[in-house]
Amino acid sequence: MKRFTGKFFELGLVCTLLCAGSVWAEEGSNLDVTMTVQVLTVYRFGSLNVNAATGTSAVSDRILVQNTGNVNETFVIKITTVTGDWKYVETQPGQDEFRLSVIWHKWDVKPSTKEFQTNDILKLTEVVASTTTFFNELDVSQHYAAGENVNQNTVNGVNVPPKSVDNARSIRYLFFRYDAPQSYTPGKTNVNMSYVVTAIASE
Amino acid sequence: MRKSLWIVLGLGMGLSQNLFGLSLSGSMGELLIRNLQPGTTVQLTPLMRLPWRIQYEGKEAIQLILRPAVPDGVEEMKTGYEVIPDLSWVRLSPALFDLEKSSTVASDVSISIPNDDSLLGKKFVVYLWAQTAAKKAGVSTGLGVKGRLLLTIAPERKKISDSLNTARSYMEFKLRPETVLLQGIQPGKKIALNKVLKKKFVVENFGSETMKFSVNRISGDSLGMNPTQGMEWGPRETVCRVQPAALKIKPGKKKHFTVTIQIPDEEQNYNRRFQYLFRISPSGVGVKSGILLKVNMETSPK
């Protein structure tokens, strides 16, 4: 009788566990594929248009970049191609050379050329946004939304929340500083350039 | 005296870009592939209907370029993983698309592990990078998405001569939401997550077969994962209930499940940030697969 009762108890316990769904997933040695982040999505509005006299610099209008995915994303920026009459440089431009720097910034204030630092220069290799790269950490007064703590990183390209969680903070703004050539070769001012803003999962 | 020349950067295409936005979306934000065997090739599409899907939305004609890429800088590395030694281990087919308008494309991801026992037990990270390239001249702002592949080689050799040929799983489903955060949680109290969040966990079968799915709590350590930065794995003694734990979903349909969590009422569990994982797994043969649900809970101070 005791053995019989024990069996019923065990059967009841197994049924309870299965129905309630509190069992742990089994481990094993078979091939195992788990999607830990499903989708990354990035949206941008606006384009790079900026004017500057030779030997001078100017800041562009803003470009909007938004995390329209489902998880926090960090944005990386890279120049992918430069062709034409000018050469892209990461130093002070000379004749027929130009340079770009970029920072994430508060949307309603165009940064001055002085806000761009050495680590904001756009490179031909990929650079991941950080709390200092593509961000003027020395000028925090301009880098938070109204009503927020100055230490809140709500404008840089790092760990940006998705639109579905926080629409306002999912939007970030890029501003470019364009350093024009020191001088130019007459008749040679054609430039084709592309750069890419890429989203990666922050986790 | 030479006059200064006002140089305009961004003519032509730049003006037209001002009118429209562009969007790029990629599946496989992060994919963890474990127990790979040296000397084998895994093709995700025939194995488990898991192509890399890229969705482009925009009015511009573009080229979409797909390629594997090594992590760029320490920010793209993953704790415990090495940079993949050779990008030729990963192949994408097709890898180039010419798109005239908004489109969704799919590419098969193939991973070939060299027949080398020195790889046993090792872990590698590689990225799948999709980026747009303008077809017109001028200055263009492209978009990209970089999905992360975390490859774990099995700790020991296993005879798999026939198993991969017959292995099958099914990944034509999605989970919403995939990450949730609950704050001010009191240990000892039974928390019905969906009531607090005011949303259900929904599994959608977008494939062509009726499929059975199971929902189980899974240990992050068993997957070789670390918790999200700032979080720690929740106590093993936490009581988690999933209702229902088994779902049978027809093609094109959705079903939902609910989760209840009760964190043990112990002093060390107050004022903490815990993460719990649940895996939604389809029925499969010879291979396991699934999508993770991450539940983040911040407990209140005592």
Q: Can you walk me through this structure?
A:
The complex is a heterodimer of chains A (203) and B (302). Chain A has one helix spanning 2-20, and strands at 31-45, 50-53, 57-59, 63-67, 73-84, 87-88, 97-104, 127-128, 171-179, 191-201. With 203 residues, chain A is mainly beta. The longest helix of chain A is centred in the first third of the chain and has 19 residues, at 2-20. Mean pLDDT of chain A is 79; it is low at 1-22. By secondary structure, chain B is mainly beta. In chain B, 6% of the residues lie in helices and 51% in strands. In chain B, the strands form 3 sheets. In chain B, strands 2, 3, 4, 5, 6, 7, 8, 9, 10 and 11 form a 10-stranded mixed β-sheet that branches. In chain B, strands 13, 16, 17, 19, 21 and 22 form a 6-stranded mixed β-sheet that branches. In chain B, strands 12, 14, 15, 18 and 20 form a 5-stranded antiparallel β-sheet that branches. Residues 1-5 and 10-19 of chain B have low confidence and may be disordered. Chains A and B meet through helix 1, strand 1, strand 2, strand 5 and strand 8 of A and strand 1, helix 1, strand 2, strand 10 and strand 11 of B.
